[in-house]
Write a structure and sequence with these properties.
The chain is about 50% helix and about 10% strand. It has about 575 residues and is an alpha/beta fold. The chain folds into three domains: about 260 residues, no CATH class; about 100 residues, no CATH class; about 200 residues, Alpha-Beta Complex (Aminoglycoside 3'-phosphotransferase, Chain: A, domain 2). Strands 4-3-5-6-7 form a five-stranded parallel sheet, sandwiched between helices. It has a five-stranded antiparallel sheet with strand order 8-9-10-12-11. Helix 3 packs antiparallel against helix 4 and helix 16 runs antiparallel to helix 20. The chain starts with 7 loop residues before the first strand and ends with a helix. About 50% of the residues are buried.
Length: about 575
């Protein structure tokens, strides 16, 4: 199934470097505390993204990793910030010595490309992966000599700097394994290969990345290269983001090595939650917004929130539990609050701004603030999911949903084509998924008819930060009948290939998910047009419908496959949902 995509942002490295330097000066005068520490984390993350973008561009031009002085200069930036970050973390966010500016100046003197592509560091943006976890994992080790640290780009470039800083090791080397996602290999030029093997000859090697994923082949590619060139497997150690094994696509060699390897990690719960302690770090970070918790946080992640809103498990909606954001409910004398991971650094700040705009306009629950990656909102006591309120008046629903979508279209425009799939990419996805699911040539031929209209459709697209998740359980009905949208800030920026689309995508999505007939969908489009100030394209609505259904079929079937062994009941829910989308797609 075609479901996932990789968002890449086009940027000028010199502009990024200048902006980082300016933000560093602002950070230097901030008062000690959590906000200053979070700002340092944001600098660290963005410097790692800059290093990733420049080195990946160099890799693309050379077709191998061999950047020479450029590689050292790129990594020096997140490395000095990692050293400051370690100091801030160890001192409880107390004052940190000034960060040296020499690495900024050194990188600025080198010839840099005009433009680079920056990949989203998914762990920082989606998975609540904190660099502090890697600082903790590394500082617990006391090797006889500092190891050679190797980071796997993208996110591994910055995480490796955290490991090296904590272990008092030299700045890391970075590599970008390439090839088939399940069979990645390292492609190193002679200079980097010689340096890597020379430094590995006399010390242990720490290999750093998030994951492992379905195959663990990125970790495996680096280890394969080292072992194939004479480095003993006993001298390799790994810094992953979770304690699990590689997924079902792992090779036998990689699976065997992983089972026997030294692995070092500190998981989120152990570091930030301290089970049984109401005074855990996460709760303390949010105390100024919520008040002091008088009992431990209630974990609502991985679909467990459904227990609170759906007393009967037979009513539970399907969720892809592996992709759910971390979220917790906290009860204090001031009330009940929801703490949800919104992203570290700029990712969280952007989502906070969106949440405040939507809340102030009356479309979402009240927002209290952001604390080091977690968005703090009021828990809406007594609210019921729309799917449990069948008597909700349809005309009022259409008007409220239309006003919400129109607000997004007016206030959240996107001027960058890289933020969402093109109409051609959507059609390719729809063709592929439809052929796989329905297996009917006539259905695929129906989709082929759109090919000659792609140019016209592309000119009609006005990209906005679409909601992309409009199922009835995503709407809350308050006691007085008011309708609020939950979870409204970031589905346009997820793992999937959809991204930001024209508001017509959400009009179609709402009609499909909320059961609107043709007339109700037309009225919805009228409400959106009034609220946004521009008409909703009928051509895009017609085109988006099969694309939306084909995407949802693929998403739910892939999720069901991933959970078939570990969560069979959830997999059944997902398959039933996929069957509904498939029936609508066939029709």
């Amino acid at each position: 199934m075609l479901v996932y995509g990789s968002a890449v942002k086009d940027a000028s490295p010199r502009e990024l470097l200048s902006a980082l330097h300016a933000r560093l000066r602002q950070w230097a005068v901030m008062a000690p505390g959590l906000d200053r520490h979070a700002a340092l984390v944001a600098l660290f993350i963005d410097s790692g993204s800059l290093a990733q973008g420049v080195l990946d561009r160099d890799f693309a031009e050379r077709r191998r990793d061999d950047p020479g002085p450029l590689g050292a200069a790129c990594v020096a930036l997140p490395f000095v910030l990692a050293q400051a970050l370690q100091r801030s973390w160890e001192t409880g966010f107390a004052s940190v010595p000034p960060v040296p500016t020499a690495p900024f100046q050194a990188l600025g003197r080198l010839p840099l490309p005009e433009r680079v592509g920056l990949s989203v560091p998914e762990g920082y943006a989606y998975h609540a992966l904190y660099p502090e976890q890697y600082l903790e994992a590394a500082k617990a080790l006391h090797p006889p000599a500092p190891p050679l640290v190797v980071g796997i780009r993208g996110i591994g470039a910055s995480l490796a700097c955290a490991v090296a800083a904590a272990m008092k090791a030299p700045p890391p080397l970075t590599v970008r394994p390439t090839g088939h996602p399940y069979q990645r290999v390292c492609s190193l030029g002679p200079g980097l290969a010689q340096e890597l093997l020379a430094r590995a000859a006399n010390t242990d090697v720490a290999i750093v990345d998030e994951g492992p994923g379905l195959s663990g082949s990125s970790f495996g590619a680096v280890a394969d290269f080292l072992e194939d060139h004479g480095v003993s497997a006993r001298r390799l150690c790994f810094f992953p983001s979770h304690a699990g094994a590689p997924g079902p696509m792992a090779s036998e060699r990689h699976r065997t090595r992983w089972a026997q390897a030294r692995r070092h990690l500190t998981e989120f719960d152990a570091l930030f939650l301290q089970p049984g302690d109401a005074r855990c770090l996460l709760a303390r970070w949010c105390e100024d917004l919520t008040g002091r918790a008088h009992r431990r946080l209630e974990d609502l992640g991985a679909g467990t929130w459904r227990r609170l809103l759906f007393p009967d498990a037979r009513e539970w909606p399907p969720v892809h539990v592996q992709q759910e954001r971390r979220k917790y409910r906290v009860t204090t004398p001031r009330g009940v609050f929801l703490l949800k991971f919104a992203g570290l650094g700029g990712f969280g700040e952007h989502r906070l701004r969106r949440a405040r705009q939507l809340s102030q306009a009356g479309f979402t629950p009240p927002v209290e603030g952001l604390r080091h990656g977690f968005l703090v909102q009021r828990w809406m006591e007594g609210a019921r999911p729309l799917s449990r309120v069948p008597e909700y008046e349809r005309q009022a629903m259409v008007a409220q949903v239309g006003g919400y979508l129109g607000f997004r279209a007016r206030h959240f425009p996107v001027d960058s084509l890289e933020r969402g799939a093109s109409v051609a990419a959507l059609l390719d996805m729809a063709r592929y998924n439809t052929a796989r699911v329905l297996g009917e040539a006539s259905c695929v031929r129906e989709l082929d008819g759109w090919s000659r209209h792609l140019g016209t459709l592309a000119r009609e697209v006005r990209r906005v930060e679409t909601d992309n998740k409009l199922q009835p359980w995503e709407w809350l009905v308050l006691a007085g009948g008011r309708l609020l949208k939950a979870d409204a800030v970031d589905h346009h920026a997820g793992h999937d290939l959809i991204g930001c689309q024209d508001v017509a995508w959400d009009v179609v999505g709402a009609a499909v998910e909320l059961g609107f007939d043709v007339q109700a969908e037309a009225r919805l489009a009228e409400h959106v047009a009034r609220a946004s100030g521009r008409p909703v394209s009928e051509g895009l609505r017609a085109f988006y419908r099969p694309c939306y259904l084909a995407f949802q079929v693929g998403h739910h079937l892939l999720a069901a496959t991933a959970l078939a062994e570990t969560a069979p009941e959830e997999a059944s829910r997902l398959r039933r949902a996929a069957e509904r989308y498939a029936a609508l797609l066939r029709a």
